[in-house]
Fold each of these.
Amino acid sequence: MERPDLAAAIDAAAEALVGVLDSAVSRQRLAVSPTQLRVLSLLTSRPETNVNGLAELLDVVPSSASRLCDRLEAIGLLRRVADPRDRREVRLVPTTAAQALLGELRSRRHEAVRVVLDRMPARVQQDLLRALQAFGQAVVAAEPPDASARSA
């Protein structure tokens, strides 16, 4: 019996999952682009980030990151604030409106995934949960020690 190509199956499942998540987001008319949503998400999980740090995370030049921030600031989703430890540093802080937007999108994505999961038998859902947890643990175990700080 031929062994299934697990990597190909995971890739296909990831594409299907991205499609489910994208459709949940696209049903809501947003004033922000996917890149701007990514910026807000990155900044939410990294509160100490400045424009140069954001540029590194996005792999763009600082001027491009700054223009992205200008647009987000103009629509009320981002604030630039002085770092209390070093007033020369400016931190990028998502606003309450940005937090609400990200929360709404997260809820929509979770609901879209729940709809798909409800079509699966409970036993298969539990198997999937265990497999995803093991996959996540294997990823963390394979990261170099300094990489885990960057991806957190």
Amino acid sequence: MPIRPENRWLYPIDWRQVSDAIRFDRAGARCERCGRPHRRHVAHLGDGRWWDAASGRWRSGRGRAIRLRGGFALARVRTTYVVLACAHLDHDPGNNAPSNLMALCQRCHMLHDAAEHRWQRWWNLFRHRAIRDLYEDPPVTRARMLLRRGG
């Protein structure tokens, strides 16, 4: 995932080299959670199950080989272009210990960051409401309208 400009100063100068070492040297250009290969088109069913062309098997969202029972509709199969990112497990960009970093595909990264994204969405909404309350007129209530009219 791209680094926001306001957060770039939190990362070390050699972040590109650290990220490459985790994604390619340690993880072997595969997601460390599900095993999806970097820079490949992968067929998937939308619920985490994906086709591993290298081994000729379906895999679960955790990378385990599975069998599909009862088949599936070919219309449900979609493809995704996989790109690995180096994720901070504790969401702290200043903690660059190898044990805190993991190579994750887009799906696994979004699942890992889901709680953080929910919190960020709440914080942005809270912040915008607070700014609106400080700098905009308060909403006109029925009681205030009656006071203005004198009744």
Amino acid sequence: MRFSHSLALGTLALGLGAGLTGQAHAQQTATAHADHLLKADHSWNGKAYTHYPSGQPTLMMIKLTIPPHTALPWHTHPIPNVGYVLEGQLTIEDKVSGASHTFHQGEAFAESMDDAHRGVSGDTATVLLLTYAGGNNLPTSIPLKGEKKEY
């Protein structure tokens, strides 16, 4: 009993001490505000997503910085991914169709899977937040034959 009594007194002293020093904070329960940036079942170029890789899911998020006036190497993605432009702008170019679309700071986009494409920055550095949903240790990006890695 003595141990329990000492523990109770210690807990009481900690509680009183926190109250006296102003470090105890009332917890408030509230809902948060959500800005829904993107919901997509197809990529920016209109191609529908058809599958996820099988196996253990793996999520990855990277912050990618592309210098001004830079075209990334042509590549494909074997897994679904989305991006968000933190700074600058990104023009995505589709190699086969020649289609392109420019995304500006504050815009989200759904990248294509299995389609050869590349990103091109504008007059300033482009900073992207990229999130990949993969599995089975698949790479996030695969360069086309003869091309360098995207990152």
Amino acid sequence: MVTHLNYCDDVSPHIDASVTEIERAAFQLRRLWAKPHLLQRLREQCGQGGRPIQLSSLLVIHAIAGQGEGRGEVTVGAVADYLDIDPSTASRLVGHAIDAGFVSRTPSPVDARRAHLRLTESGERVRRLTDEFRRRFIARLVADWTDEERSMFAGLLGRFAEAAANYPMEAAELETSIEAARADDCAP
């Protein structure tokens, strides 16, 4: 069953309706990261003394874990690339994760101008708990799907995510897309 959002039912006549459904579904998937139950459970289980665990810290933890899997040094630049954000934003988010005790920073053995990032024991615990929470949550969502449906969905979603991550969106192309959307919006 597809749940339709009512935030914008106007669809450009030039865009296939399935593209609109994919866009809406992709927006909803952000909830896998920011479920209030997950953040509350993490506060309780990770000894944060009632301090909220920020979504940005979860993203930094995920980025460091994803980059650190045998790929060499993890730097602020690698976190910025992984999260597709500006290096100054990544630096600020990494700083917050360090202050929260999830990440440690040491001088790089390769280049003294850079810092090597690692998850602390607390950061590893948060990563394990969030991974487990999301996997159990997804398992419940697809529990009544056949093995074939789950496999097909996993393949297509992975393919979609890979394409989205590797699509070279240039500023000029983005501006053209925005202008086209404005033109469609203003069309009689």
